[in-house]
Specification:
This protein is mostly helical. The protein has one domain.
Length: 281
């Protein structure tokens, strides 16, 4: 039954998000770009890190991280509304333009590192079931993925990359929905297991380790800043609304990730089998 719940949740989620009316919506397509940057393969490392670092306090810890990220997004939205017109005026402010170019270069370098890291992480997870756990296989797959993304960008431009993002984000949101539905179904069947999972998760005694780890987790909630580069394709207001919408969706996803360490522990520590009727289905 649990497998059926997971598969059904994934199928329904993907079906809803792949509706033609939604895929063609300019608002949704503008939201997809920052959302694709935020919801990467980071959830593969967030859950075990939270479990090891803060244990049962994981939902509150992740809420603090996404709250800080939302504050950073608020500052960026303020800049889009008030600073971007200063850059677009003729003649532009020379020092402001130079600072903007330097910032673009720094952000571009940071994105190269970030994208390569996430693709390398994803490649390692994908190839692990096939026994390719060395460096050559994941590195080769990462290189092919980077080449494929670059090729789509050169041949199809932003529209082509947006279509790739639509497919990728839809699948990722479907996976997240299926995972949460599976945990929810398990807890409904074994309500005491969740309490056992919380009891078995205790944070370490070193507060400095917690602070440093949570500060590093900002990496898995950033990416919303890509909305500011949509100005050439959309109206001035749409990058602001797309960033806000993407951050709200990602907030719900990441706080749900924060609850998963204890749900994983609940599954691992349970001592009751599934009811016989459900196992047979």
């Amino acid at each position: 039954m649990l497998t059926l719940v997971v598969l059904a949740s994934f199928t329904v989620g993907v079906f809803v998000l792949f509706r033609p009316a939604l895929v063609r919506s300019p608002d949704w397509r503008a939201t997809i770009t920052p959302l694709a940057s935020i919801i990467g393969s980071g959830f593969l490392v967030v859950v075990p890190l939270l479990a090891a670092t803060v244990g049962a306090w994981a939902p509150l810890a992740m809420a603090a991280v996404v709250a800080y990220a939302y504050a950073v997004g608020w500052a960026l939205r303020l800049n889009i509304r008030h600073a971007e017109p200063l850059l677009a005026r003729d003649p532009p402010h020379r020092q402001l333009v130079n600072l903007e170019r330097l910032s673009d270069a720094a952000l571009g370098l940071a994105y190269v590192v970030s994208v390569a890291f996430y693709l390398r992480l994803l490649a390692a997870f994908v190839l692990r079931p096939f026994g390719a756990e060395g460096d050559l296989g994941p590195q080769a797959l990462t290189t092919l993925l980077l080449f494929g993304i670059a090729l789509v960008g050169v041949l199809r431009g932003l529209a082509g990359l947006e279509m790739v993002e639509v497919v990728a984000v839809t699948i990722k949101l479907g996976v997240i929905a299926a995972l949460l539905a599976g945990f929810g179904a398990f807890v409904l069947v074994h309500p005491s297991a969740l309490a056992d999972g919380y009891a078995s998760n205790r944070p370490p005694e070193d507060p400095w380790t917690i602070v440093r780890t949570l500060a590093g987790m900002l990496l898995v909630v950033q990416g919303f800043e890509t909305s500011r580069y949509l100005g050439s394709r959309y109206s001035a207001e749409r990058p602001i609304t797309s960033m806000r919408r993407a951050q709200l969706i990602a907030t719900a996803s990441r706080i749900s990730d924060g609850a998963e360490p204890c749900e994983f522990a609940a599954v691992a520590t349970r001592d009751k089998p599934w009811p016989r009727a459900e196992r047979e289905t």
